[in-house]
Amino acid sequence: MNTPLANAPANAPGNASGTASGMTPAPTASAASNLLPVWPRPSADEFDAVVHGAYMPLTQFGVIDVTGEDAASFLHGQLTNDVQHLDAAHARLAGYCSAKGRLLASFLSWRSGDTIRLLVSKDVQAAVQKRLSMFVLRAKAKLADASGQLAVVGLAGDAGDLRGALSGVFDALPDGVHVQVDGTAGSLIRVPDALGRLRYLWIGPKAQVDALLPSLDGKLKRVSQAVWDWLDIRAGEPRITQPVVEQFVPQMVNYDVLGAVNFRKGCYPGQEVVARSQYRGTIKRRTSLATVAGEIDTVRPGAELFHSDDPGQPCGMIVNAASAQDGGVDLLVEIKLAALEGGSVHLGAADGPALRFLPLPYGLPAEV
Description:
- By secondary structure, the chain is an alpha+beta fold.
- The protein has two domains: 41-234, Gyrase A, domain 2, CATH 3.30.1360.120; 284-356, Elongation Factor Tu (Ef-tu), domain 3, CATH 2.40.30.
- Helices cover 17% and strands 30% of the residues.
- Strands 8-9-10-7-1-11 form a six-stranded mixed sheet. Strands 16-13-14-15-12-17 form a six-stranded antiparallel sheet. A five-stranded antiparallel sheet has the order 3-4-5-2-6, covered by helices on one side.
């Protein structure tokens, strides 16, 4: 069962036992599932467009702007990654945990001038922004919802096609994952490849981005934002949404492997739990890539998984789900490592649809 985000324990900076109070409870898992949009299945042409080049406005994300002379130090004390040394040329994936080390949100963080920006799933943004604001205390930092002023666009495809399409917008393209370039139209950040294709996030002033998007037509195909969710899954990069809030320690969703956790930085909420899991070899659950028969309106994040040899208790949970190119639904699933050693894994019950597991695009450390 999900613990409501707004009522979960939290740390003020430098206080490992701080608690939040007086906040409106967030929806339960069953109700929260309804907060996630259910996109119609993309057409075959939309999936195929990714081979050469496609772009997609992404309304599933929100942006929190953090400003003030203490913005970096404040976030450094709250998130799992190093924000204090975040420079203007790179973005970083980070998590935000409860005092119990369970993820409340995931962010892509980057600098835009004197502002630190946090890209977050829109369904958790309001609660997370409110929670973070409670712990600013005397720090000179301010959080603001910038979603209405900014547009977020995903781009995917062949390097040559993307370079040609964006040449009139940005002077250069990022040459590595989480490398960032800035221009008059905003920031362009390369994110992990999917299915052998490059991917970028373009975040900029909404009016300016909207005016420039027609220049991409004819060079790239505009496709559904559901394609981006699918590409994120095939890249093996989990996203924390409301149905799975407080379900996972960062390592359970491979955030240590993805560079979202800095084990050398100072304190943040849940750090002791996260560090203990890392150094005592207690990670017995990881996130895997899988596919299952069905449609996205019935295969949803937060749904439990069951093993054929142990039908009485769940062995895992769906983290993210998206309509797949070849039919069915592709998934990122958090699961007991032992459940992958034999038998079969099923959705909803031991006699439910069987999952077929696929290789992740990166390796996982050997667990002891």
